[in-house]
Design a protein that fits this description.
By secondary structure, this protein is of the alpha+beta class. The chain has helices at 24-28, 40-56, 111-114, 116-119, 122-128, 133-150, 157-160, and strands at residues 3-10, 13-19, 66-67, 73-74, 81-87, 90-96, 102-106, 161-165, 172-179, 181-191, 196-200. A hairpin with a 6-residue loop joins strand 8 and strand 9 (172-179).
Length: 204
Amino acid sequence: MPIFYQHQINETTRLGIWKIEETEEFFKANVPQHRDVTHPHKRLQHLAGRFLLQYLFPDFPYELIKIADTRKPFLPGEQYHFSISHCGDYAAAIVSRNQRVGVDIEIPVDKIIRVRDKFLSPDEVVTFGSLDIDQLTMCWSAKEAVFKWDGEGGIDFREQIHLHKSHGNTNQMNCTFIKGAQVELTIEIQHLKYIVLAWVAPDN
C-alpha cells in the first residue's frame, strides 16, 4: 500500500501523502468522481486525493463532498474540514474533525526562480536572502497552504501573506495573514524525498 508519508498532528487531525501507483480503475472502484477531469493523469490525482481522505478517517463521507464557488471542496455541515493537494505522482490530504486546515505539496523545479517576485514581497526577499530552488519552493508551498486554509480565494500572495523566519524550529515558518483582520499562523514544513510539504492546522 503506497502511503508515502503519514502524520497524526493531534487527536482530531491527520495528514497523509499517497504515492500513486494504482490504476484509475482501482480508485474508481472505491471513490466517486465529483467533477469531470479530462486529463488522464489529473483525473488520477483527483481520485487519489479523495481516496486518501477515507484512508485517513475511514468514516469520511466523500460522497457528500460539494465544490464551492471558489472551487474549494467542502462537506456541508462541516463534519470534517479538509484540504487536498497533488503534484506529479503524489496526492496529499489533511483532515480535521474540528478546525480549518490547509495543505500543499510541490516538486521543486527551476521555474520557481523566474516567478519569485510574483509571490514574495521585497521585504520577504530581504528577510530570507539568497534562496535556492528548494527554499523558494518551500516559500511558495507555505503560501499555498495558507491560501487553502483560508479557502475563499482572491488572495494576493505578495500583499496578504507575509512569511517570517521561525528561529526556534527549522521545520516551521511564521506567517502574518492580512484579510480584513490580521491573523498570525504557524506553517509546518517538511522536506521529503522529491517533494516539499507544507500545512496549516492552527491548533496543533
